[in-house]
Design goal:
Elements (H helix, E strand, L loop, with lengths): L6 E4 L15 H14 L3 E5 L5 H13 L4 E5 L4 H10 L6 E8 L2 H7 L4 H16 L4 E7 L6 H14 L3 E6 L6 H14 L7 E6 L6 H10 L4 E4 L13 H10 L14 H12 L16 E2 L2 H9 L18 E2 L7 H10 L6 H15 L7 H9 L2 H5 L1
Parallel strand pairs: 1-2, 1-8, 2-3, 3-4, 4-5, 5-6, 6-7, 7-8, 9-10
Helix pairs in contact: 1-2, 1-10, 2-3, 5-6, 6-7, 7-8, 8-9, 11-12
Bound molecules: 3-methyl-2-oxobutanoic acid and zinc ion.
3-methyl-2-oxobutanoic acid binds next to strand 5 and strand 6.
Amino acid sequence: MSNNNVQIFDTTLRDGEQVPGCKLNTEQKLIIAEQLDILGVDVIEAGFPVSSPGDFKSVEAISKIIKNATVCGLTRSVENDIKVAAEALKYAKRPRIHTGIGTSDSHIKYKFKSTQEDILERAFHAVKYAKSFVEDVEFYAEDAGRTDNEYLARVCEAVIKAGATVLNIPDTTGYCLPSEYGAKIKYLKENVKGIDKAILSCHCHNDLGLATANSIEGVINGARQIECTINGIGERAGNTALEEVVMILKQHPYLNLDTRIKTEMLYGISQLVSESMGIYTQPNKAIVGANAFAHSSGIHQDGVIKKRETYEIIDPKDVGVTESAIVLTARSGRAALAYRAKNLGYELTKLQLDDIYTSFLDFADNKKQVDDDDIHQIIEHSKLYKEI
Ligand code: KIV
Ligand code: ZN
């Protein structure tokens, strides 16, 4: 693997599925997992096997069918969790155990009522134990975003010694600023002994709307894996959106960071996840929202019709959207009306267009969006259109 490759770790089926009311059954999970594999994700986090018999069954079933990606199961730093995850993953071609523990002061003091030294030991033992089942062990330092860097570096060193090859640095509460998160990754890259034996992974939550920005800062500062979900779904404000980080790296080639994702599948898989989970995607969602490639103001429409790139930084076909949409509203100009009319088979003269545009504006002032049927009606009722 080249050092410029950013691994895409998809956690739609684990962290993403923690959204209240969005439970998927095993069959739905299998369909999504298969699509994720074809999409080209490097790792599929299939679930948290010890959490329920249903989750165990899903992780086991996904392990059996996935051909290319690593299949991963989450655990706490608890022997039984790890044993159960290893059992669920036993059919996987490439199994990974993702174990970890909270490392911030609030986790240590209030959740575990423990000490930094005890947590460090538990982390070491969890990784050692996981290593007795699988070669590929990832460690997460929960709430790393609010963990003191020096202590975090000590935890990272200990788990590398125990055999972890991926170190997940979650901003569990979505608290960090991009500059802070980037600096944390840089600090770990520069201060953890043995870091050349492992890769750092970004796992960012979106409580302040910064998950994508933080993940990108993470890879700019040396991380080589991003943990993300389709449509950014996940608990509270969600996780880093897979489609966003992938397209940011693709659209900024000078960063010299690539993924293996087949971007033309992004729109389709976004629809699949949204429909399976019953979560509606906001229309202005970057990359996959219904309006991501729709233009409604006259100035923008005129620019896009003349040259698409004037107002679009992504070719919609690159993410699986057939074409940009010119949406007719009362803000649209003559160029957009002529363009849509032409697509419907009407070649209008300048005089006809002027006449029709006036009727169009009267109509559009009373309707949010003018559709093809409305355009037919407006044109067919125009006196000038009939006369010429
Ligand atoms: O956000 C988080 O800290 C997590 C870990 C369990 C990896 O999801
Ligand atoms: Zn998370």
